[in-house]
Specification:
The protein is mostly helical. Helix content is 69%, strand content 0%. The protein has helices spanning 7-13, 22-26, 30-42, 44-53, 56-76, 81-92.
Length: 98
């Protein structure tokens, strides 16, 4: 499954470095990487809040896997990959800790 991740996001900006190590980031599923990158840049207070309560890498791993499963289910129901991505992208960017 291809996830639209911009190479420049990964190699240049790296806002996630404020919260995660390279090893932790490498352990995340692709959707978890997108989520960690987005949240670190746009919702750093939320990242700090989650970090106080639980391991942030584990949180992104769990949420990334959940969203990947949701995307797979949507595609099995007949949606195209781009359509499924648009639906889960909304959840990916939600700013409430779950």
């Amino acid at each position: 499954m291809a996830i639209p991740i911009l190479q420049e996001t990964w190699s240049k900006r790296r806002p996630w470095r404020k919260f995660l190590t390279e090893k932790e980031m490498d352990s995340l599923p692709a959707i978890g990487v997108v989520m960690a990158d987005h949240w670190a840049e746009w919702h750093p207070d939320l990242c700090r809040e989650i970090q106080k309560e639980q391991n942030l890498a584990e949180y992104f791993k769990r949420r990334g896997n959940d969203l990947a499963d949701q995307m797979d289910r949507l595609m099995q129901q007949g949606l195209g990959e781009d359509q499924a991505w648009e639906i889960i992208a909304e959840d990916l960017c939600v700013t409430q800790a779950m």
